[in-house]
Amino acid sequence: MQRTARVCAVITEETTAGALRALQESARVADLAEIRLDYLRDFDFGEPRNLSVFLERQPLPVIITCRDVDEGGHQALDNDLRLRLLAEASRTADYSDVEAVHYARLIELGADTSRLIVSYHNFKETPADLDSIYDRLVSFPAAIHKIATLAQHASDCLAHFKLLERAQRERRDLIAIAMGHRGIISRLLGPSRGSFLTYGSFGREKESAAGQLTCREMTRRYRIRDLSTKTRMVGIIGRPVAHSASPAMHNAAFAETGLDFVYVPFEVDDVNEFVRRMILVSTTESGLDFRGLSVTIPHKSAILNLVDELDPIASAVGAVNTLVIDHGKLHGYNTDVRGMLAPLAEVLSIEDHSFAVIGAGGAARAVICGLKSRGARVEVFARDPARASGIAGDFDVKIKRLDDLHKSEATVLINATPVGMHGHSEGVSPVSPDVFEGRIAAYDLIYNPAETQFLKDARERGCLTLSGMEMLVTQAAAQFELWTGRSAPVEAMRKACLEYLAES
Ligand code: NAP
What we know:
Layout: E1 7-11, H1 16-26, E2 32-36, H2 52-55, E3 62-65, H3 79-92, E4 95-99, H4 103-108, E5 116-122, H5 130-138, E6 144-150, H6 157-169, E7 174-179, H7 184-189, E8 198-201, H8 215-221, E9 232-238, H9 246-257, E10 261-267, H10 271-279, E11 290-295, E12 309-310, H11 312-317, E13 322-326, E14 329-333, H12 336-347, E15 354-358, H13 362-373, E16 377-382, H14 389-395, E17 398-401, E18 412-415, E19 441-444, H15 453-460, E20 464-466, H16 469-484, H17 490-503
Parallel strand pairs: 1-2, 1-8, 2-3, 3-4, 4-5, 5-6, 6-7, 9-10, 9-11, 12-14, 15-16, 15-18, 16-17, 18-19, 19-20
Antiparallel strand pairs: 11-13, 13-14
Helix pairs in contact: 9-16, 9-17, 12-13, 12-16, 16-17
The protein binds NADP nicotinamide-adenine-dinucleotide phosphate.
């Protein structure tokens, strides 16, 4: 039986007043709240009755947790005081969460097992024998059992889904979580597979465990309460993917169109293993109904070997940024070409211009392929022309030294390097400002920040400027259309992208 997802806000405030405020506010985004006592700096841990401050007249059920440092706790506390507090919490709070190793002592202290959450954590890995860990854990009578392990691979989430299935068959309440960035789907899909609850942070920078999303992200962006085992899956595979704007854009599009799809980030190291265990109908262990994927760095080329059919544009570019999964077959596309061309064509006539592309990586290949398909003249400028020589043959273009850019007669300069990107080299330009003298336009594929140093220098020299934001939205809209067969709600996607970038 499936129930509506319960979201538990984890409160990691350092003061009692802050925690009480957070408790009140969390009722707006969560169904339960967990107070992490081990974060509090002003709490008298020697007096269990002080717990009542968190339990009286609260707007939602409260879980009291106070972790030992070895179990992910935030400060060293006397273990006996800690366990006395947790025993008291089991009698007075809605739930008290205690590590399995301390179960016997909790019973000695008179704990009420009907309100205990007995938990097992592993911050190093997801052990192969989760079933035997589950067997040991459930031998301790409790209201709920909880297993949280670090995901080293996205596919580690599958072991948690299997445990949830087992717990449902055995009619036990279980919380199963794969922690870390690679475990995000266990947090998002766990409740639809029977997890008693899923944890969310109360705000950004307030996470109690790696990979935790905020409650707001889970409920608004991922619509966790609407997800079911029937929800169709799409997502992004790459490394890293934690800061991708794509989940915000695509989930906004699904919400706008009312489609039962969810778009999830997958931090993937081994793309072969991911496709085999999660996607391919003949080998999948996931039971997830994948309709497609966005593919990003570093997997755009490796995925070429795994597709059953390759779209001619993706074949010409030599990279796939979109997979469509249809009747068990993988179809590879490249929507970066359309994404790059459409905003450019809005502001100038492509065939009337000559282009200097800076950089010779994956995005540059899409740019060159697109421009050449429109009959434009293109030169490529690379810091190491020898390394970029493959592009010369693939697209019949000249590769020149980046230092010689000032000699180029191109009317439009395109930055296809990451130089100037937020979190990489913000404020830096790959070229000196004087190269913009006499040019018509500058296009930076980077979308964060909206105005890079490259574009600022160009604007100050009278060039028309174009950021990568429209490319990002346009290529995502093309993906949406490939996956759903419907026209994309571009305005909703653009709005979500702008909001995401403003927040980040
Ligand atoms: P990539 O495959 O890693 O290629 C990066 C290229 O930049 C390489 O040719 C690299 O040269 C060059 N480069 C790196 N640092 C440089 C420096 N300091 N000076 C000169 N050249 C340098 O990356 P990519 O996938 O092509 O992505 C490039 C940029 O495009 C990223 O910022 C990405 O966010 C952006 N992008 C935007 C969109 C969008 O939708 N707006 C889509 C795709 C990509 P070497 O080979 O010498 O290292």
